[in-house]
Amino acid sequence: QAKSQTASDVCFFDPGMQRRMQQRAQLYEDLLGALARSELYLVYQKQVDQLDCVTGVEALIRWRHPDRGLVPPSEFIPLAEERPLIHELGLWVIEQACLTLVDWVQQGDDSTRTVSVNVSPRQFQDPGFVARVSDILARTGAPARRLKLEVTESLFVADRDGVERTMTRLKALGVTFALDDFGTGYSSLAYLKRLPLDELKIDQSFVRDVLDNATSSAIVASTIALARSLGLDVIAEGVESAEQRDWLHRHGCHRYQGFLYGQPAPLSELDFSTL
Ligand code: C2E
Ligand code: MG
Ligand code: MG
Ligand code: MG
Description:
binds ligand C2E, GGDEF domain-containing protein, globular
């Protein structure tokens, strides 16, 4: 009996799985030192209005691994989110975004153009998060109104009161909030009214087939209507074609982000010339 249990255990930990677990552990080890070795950097993607003016950029993290090359955030952000590392990493992204804003101001840009950063739900569990953000804003002198925090619906699944309090305190610092990947989460729509949100981001999965899938176009049209009636800004992500952009425009969405306007790139490579 005991022997057959052992056999099945051995079978469960097959060599392939063991190798993948080791690779994951190794990747995490590498990630721990990645910040100090300057392997992490941000690229930025433009957000434009209906006149093609750049209204903001979204900061997206990149990791150039010395052996593996570019590791996508979908692979290493979940690793960081399993441990306290996400706090350090998340604050680093916010600080970089703030330094970018300060740079713009120093170059004479006193517009309302924003920098958006993705914030992991786990970062909200850090009781010192608000104080840290406040500290970064004070230290860098970045205009808080131009810092936009992107959160996802998964944030609202647990501890809604705590999340609401934290968001309200962050709002009091002057920052704004966008709800990313809207429509892909599970939570009720009631939180849209309760939480201090400024913007809905229509998820790219709906934008992708908005022209030829009736469900997607219905979801996108309803999201635009919902945002309008709640007084929220709305932006579509993953806009790849002029046809998608025109459809969105006809249905009342006037802000866009996607490959149609450019790939995420280092700031120095972004062209803001339409401003
Ligand atoms: P997201 O915040 O929804 O970011 C949009 C993703 O769509 C980005 O992928 C972007 O490169 C990609 N994208 C932009 N335009 C298009 C388009 O027209 N078509 C298609 N197919 N894709 C487009 P990326 O950079 O690989 O990031 C993936 C996700 O990783 C992000 O999704 C975000 O959830 C997360 N992430 C990225 N940077 C950070 C970060 O600094 N912190 C945290 N916590 N998460 C991050
Ligand atoms: Mg985002
Ligand atoms: Mg998104
Ligand atoms: Mg996404």
